[in-house]
Automatic annotation (TrEMBL):
PANTHER family: DIHYDROOROTASE (PTHR43137:SF1). This is Dihydroorotase, mitochondrial. One of its GO terms (cellular component) is chloroplast. CDD domains: DHOase.
Length: 350
């Protein structure tokens, strides 16, 4: 794939005193540059072991912080495990990196209220992740009884102002795979928000116009969504273009073009409810290219450029910075980054 788009080239650090508003898009002849506040990634899979070591620098070179997903084997279900995982990430970071992993807990039917209190007190756990059991990669230990066994924990999360991050798909095999997000909104998210209107919810990696409408209909500051580069750039044709394309397979699966367009409109509108979450999900090559390929797209080395391409093509580069660098920390109640990153438009080959 040959692209002409904005390629991140360097992070410039400014001390707070010298902080000034980014100058924004500058067109200097053929050389186009854009300087924005350093982005964060609000949905990232770093894995562990060798894979962690192989991928972490790709995120750390562009992003200031990342919400690190807990779907390891075994999953990160306790604050103690999150602390250990965090240490193993910090250990393999490049020495000059100030990348900060923001840890999450994997919700199960047996998570306790005390665990949520511990998580909040730890100062390193920022959210709890809901995987409906069987919905996606390493979700077999996920939630089976959200409105029953998990309810006390959700109430504690309201008390602790701890966001619930949601993989929003039903797992019923009788529901068509392309409808699983829409049905999840109707049967789980809408009742959940009615029951717990003060719970902060992030609908992760949205893929449909139904999700866009749902998020826009909720109270700002309580419900938001992350958006991946692949769901902004590809539709479901890309899964079958010239043959089966396993590297375009992720969950929730890519949808029709009308859905892609709705998501592009939502993020380029300047709405505060949508922010960057790459869902970069590395898998070993032989697990993608085989008779039963697993779900997940690895994108962190190129994600920021791809987002910039989407905003540029929509004529909305002036809205890019809010999506990449402001809306996420504002929703989580965290400070925006001080450092900045320069994007330079250039041709490159992936
Ligand atoms: N998105 C994916 O297709 N896969 C993710 C899990 C997830 O985010 O659902 C993974 O961990 O591989
Ligand atoms: Zn997911
Ligand atoms: Zn994910």
């Amino acid at each position: 794939m040959i692209n002409s788009l904005l390629l991140p080239c360097k992070v410039f650090k400014f001390p707070p005193k010298k902080f000034e508003r980014p100058k924004g898009f500058q067109n200097k002849g053929p050389k186009m540059e854009l300087t924005i506040t350093q982005p964060d990634d609000w949905h990232l899979h770093l894995r562990d072991g060798d894979l962690l070591e192989a991928v972490v620098s790709h995120s750390a070179s562009h992003f200031g912080r990342a919400i690190v997903m807990p779907n390891l084997k075994p999953p990160v279900t306790s604050t103690a495990a999150a602390l250990t995982y965090r240490e193993s990430i910090l250990k393999v970071l490049p020495t000059d990196s100030n990348f900060t992993p923001l840890m999450t807990l994997y919700l199960t039917d047996t998570t306790s209220r005390d665990e949520i209190k511990l998580a909040r007190r730890s100062g390193v756990v920022y959210a709890v992740k809901l995987y409906p059991a069987g919905a996606t990669t390493n979700s077999q230990d996920g939630v089976r009884d959200l409105f029953g066994k998990c309810l006390p924990v959700l109430e504690e999360m309201v008390e602790q102002n701890m966001p619930l991050l949601v993989h929003g798909e039903v797992t019923d095999p009788n529901i068509d795979i392309f409808d699983r997000e829409k049905v999840f909104i109707e049967t789980v998210l809408e009742p959940l928000i009615q029951q717990l209107p003060r719970l902060k919810v992030v609908m992760e990696h949205i893929t449909t116009m139904d999700a866009v409408r749902f998020v826009e209909s909720c109270k700002e500051g309580y419900v938001a969504a992350t958006v991946t580069p692949q769901h902004l750039l590809l539709n479901r044709n890309s899964l079958f273009q010239g043959g089966l394309q396993p590297h375009n397979y992720c969950l929730p699966v890519l949808k029709r073009e009308i859905h892609r367009k709705a998501i592009v409109s939502a993020v380029t509108s300047g709405s505060k409810r949508f922010f960057l979450g790459t869902d970069s999900a590395p898998h070993e090559r032989q697990r993608k290219e085989c008779s039963c390929g697993c779900a997940g797209i690895y994108n962190s080395p190129v994600a920021l450029s791809l987002y910039a391409k989407v905003f540029e093509e929509a004529g909305a580069l002036d809205k890019l910075e809010a999506f990449t660098s402001f809306n996420g920390p504002d929703f989580y109640g965290l400070p925006r980054n001080i450092s900045r990153i320069k994007l330079r438009k250039t041709s490159w080959k992936l």
